[in-house]
Amino acid sequence: MDPVLVLTQALNGLQLGVMLFLMAAGLTLVFGIMGLINLAHGALYMAGAYAMAATVAATDSFLAGIAAALLAAAAVGAVVEMAALRRLYDRDHLDQVLATFGLILCFNELVRLIWGPAALFVTVPPALSGTVEIFAGVPYPAYRLAVIAVGIAVAGGLYLLIARTRLGMLIRAGASNRTMVAALGVDIRLLYTAVFALGAALAALAGAIAAPLLSVEPGMGEPVLILTLVVIVVGGIGSIRGAFVAALLIGFIDTMGRAFLPAMLREVTGPATAAAVGPALASMLIYLTMAVVLAVRPQGLFAARTG
After folding, report:
1. 200, 237, 243, 299 — which has fewest CB within 10 A?
2. How many CA atoms lie within 13 A of 124 on its CB side?
3. Bridge partners of 120?
4. Where do the H-state alpha helices sit in the chain?
5. Domain-wise residue ranges, the chain
6. Using CA atoms, how far apart are residues 25 and 32, in angstroms rounded to an integer?
7. Could you read off the pLDDT of 216-225 as tens digits, one per residue?
């Protein structure tokens, strides 16, 4: 097996993992604090990608696109939380699933009305369009390395926010006992809106940095939402630390499985069977991983907690 290919795919897995963490962190914050199952989280990822694509097309500035994605998604998230989701906190999870699934349909149709059904594309900024030699003879795209660096930096910043700031203290307290926090004079509604806007901004950041790597199109949030839900279940619902570890794990397993499992099967079963079975098994690996984790630790890799 080519060690250069293995290293390249490992870095691809790391890049996918940090992007999944950006999605999972916001979703697990919302569930851990509010007890809300938000299936529309993928729509916020899509909103970030579209805000990125539209802003870059208008200004030719990649950084302006990132800023627009964060601000637009945070604003949309705050409005959606206040207008619709606030009424769902005391409802059961089935009501939350149905309502947020309806939001997915609304967001997808709104995107089609504004931008049409055709895919949009964002080019990598010139400063990051080349490659970087990690080791001699091992080039890797500079943009993908930048994505990894941004994801790790955001993970560190989120840890500091949750563990070292007053807002983080309120978030952790609200996750433990929201009634007591409200009784102490904290505006719990404002806290919920801030947490939801933060989660929306994290999802939008994932969408914005994924825009140069993927086509920007209606419904692009649903596939990544499925992976994000797997990450949250594996890591432990409500655990930021678990989301980070599980995101890296799922990113590695998904990338390495798709890259090497069909080739490994060809050595055992022959080309025809490997071509038929290999891709299907590769796509199933993350779900098999989830099943194994739940069989051993039903609460996930880490106990459900915020931070």
Report:
1. 299
2. 15
3. 216
4. 3-34, 41-59, 62-83, 93-115, 142-164, 166-176, 178-183, 188-210, 221-235, 240-269, 271-296
5. 3-218
6. 10
7. 999 999 999 9
CB 25 within 8 A of CB 158: yes
What are the backbone angles phi and psi of residue 149, rounded to the nearest 5°?
-60, -40
User: Whole-angstrom distance between the N-terminal and C-terminal Cα of the chain?
Assistant: 39
What single string gives the DSSP state of each residue in 26-57?
HHHHHHHHH----TTHHHHHHHHHHHHHHHHH
Task: Please tell me which residue, 272 or 124, carries the higher pLDDT value.
Answer: 124
Residue 124, H or E segment? none
In angstroms, rounded to a whole number, what is the distance separating the alpha carbons of residues 179 and 35? 13
138-141 vs 131-135, strand pairing mode: antiparallel
Give the number of residues written for the chain.
307
Structure tokens at 77: 């998230």
Tokens representing 67 are 């800023």
Both structure tokens of 104: 């997915």
189 to each of 93, 112, 185, how far by Cα in Å? 19, 32, 11
To the nearest whole number, what is the mean pLDDT of the chain? 88
Whole-angstrom distance, CA of residue 116 vs CA of residue 53: 13
Residue 85 carries which side chain, given as an amino acid letter? L
CB 64 within 8 A of CB 52: no
Residues 244-275: tens digit of each pLDDT: 999 999 999 989 888 888 778 877 777 777 77
Token pair belonging to 94 = 């089935």
CA dihedral 54, 57, 67, 228 (to 10 degrees): 50
What pLDDT is stored for residue 191 in this prediction? Answer: 86
